[in-house]
């Protein structure tokens, strides 16, 4: 149950990144790309930091990945 908090935190962080990118008048594809880049940045940071702290940051990036996958699926099905 304790693992859900960092995953949810990563999900919420990426939601905030997505909302900010939409407020800045980005289109859906560009907002998706910004969220994906944020996920990659956090994932690479977790590998650079390493140790137990890096593992925690990696779990946060897992939540970010879940959001990116969800947005990718919605973008695939709802765009023409």
UniProtKB/TrEMBL annotation:
This is YesK-like protein. It comes from Oceanobacillus limi. The chain crosses the membrane at residues 6-24, 31-53, 59-78. Keywords: Membrane, Transmembrane, Transmembrane helix. It comes from the Bacteria.
């Amino acid at each position: 149950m304790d693992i859900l908090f960092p995953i949810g935190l990563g999900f919420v962080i990426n939601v905030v990144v997505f909302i900010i990118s939409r407020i800045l008048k980005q289109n859906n594809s560009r907002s998706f790309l910004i969220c994906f880049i944020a996920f990659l940045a956090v994932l690479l940071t977790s590998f650079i930091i390493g140790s137990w702290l890096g593992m925690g940051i990696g779990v946060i990036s897992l939540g970010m990945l879940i959001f990116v996958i969800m947005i990718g699926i919605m973008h695939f099905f709802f765009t023409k």
